[in-house]
Input
Amino acid sequence: MDAKYFLGEPRLLISPDALRTNLRTLRRHLAPTVRVCAVLKANAYGHGAKVIAQVLLQIETESPFDRVDAFAVATFEEADELRELEKPVMILRPVENAFLGRQRELIEHAILNGWILTLRSASAADDIARIAMHLQKRASVQIMVDTGMRRCGVAYDEFAHVLERTLHHPTLRLDGLGTHFANSELSGNPFTLEQLRFFNRLLDGYPILESVPKHAANSGAIFFTPRAHFDLVRPGLSLYGIDPTGHPSVDRPLAPVATLAAPIIAVHDVEVGESVGYGQTFVATEPTRIGIVALGYADGYPRAASNRGVVRVLGHSCGVVGRVSMDMTAINLTRCPDAGIGDEAIFIDSDPHSPASIYALTRVTDQIAYEILTGLGSRIKRVICPTSPSEQTLRDDDPPKPVFMPR
Output
């Protein structure tokens, strides 16, 4: 659907050019033989899994170098959204409780679709093998190893048993062996290096695993721990243009893929001493022009941005005034006299150095980019936008002047 079709509604504009830029930046850090598994869990980190997958496949048709080799999701439902795509799909959440509720039905569906299931126990291997035998199919599985994250991987002293049970079943095919780093965004982090050494020691102890694809590197490890690239890498946040360090980097020119925009639906003047919003946390100290925008915390714009956030309107920086409410946010249009009803406010700018960038918003709200992006709600339309909105090409040199008195 054309991006203009949803004008007048909150929109998350997805840039194919930015996605291509990020994919190329990632590939420049990898050997040609290393495959890329695009992580699309949590609705592609809030960007829209179907939209991102569609763009990635289109990019690949234009240039085979700009390819992804597989997709990763967290749940069966997320995998089902991608079932029509001709790419391997791995489900990262480990299979357990295979015969509770509808779990068997979901596992059967996964096996029939050829998705790669994740193991962390011998009992799960037995259960999947039993279900695959009933279907007269061979299930693809991978084993995730706990090298220090202490989450859902297989512990070292249990690995031999899990591996033995997996290889024992003719209805299981071992298609991967992986681990996950706890501090990969920190260059040269000792714990990451220790996790890597642990993983390599385990691999050295089982020559039978030589032909099994191995993966460990998330976004941070792709850039900072090249020895962890192995056969496949799993970029998540970096694919969407956010640097794993939480700060834009000239060494890694990632381009934020998304622009969050919403329309102004009302404009009015507030006199000195009048308040705006719940709790009267904004009181005007001078005549102020207020715009009301159709986006609130129910859409994922953080309530913590109340009286602190900055948005962009027609190239101007405009401060958020009063409390962000469920469906609407008030902004200060005093320095943007030309703005009116129907104009868009940019809540998350694709310029990483903008006062409305995702980096700036994380600082204002004391959140991480993952949290903000994955919290973007379903009312926001995810649409492909080949060119960036014109608002992003204009810049102020100074931040918006505060004209309120918080109570």
Summary: Confidence is low (pLDDT under 50) at residues 390-407. Residues 190-204 form the longest helix (15 residues). The first strand starts at residue 11 and ends at 14. The chain has two domains: 31-239, 258-393.
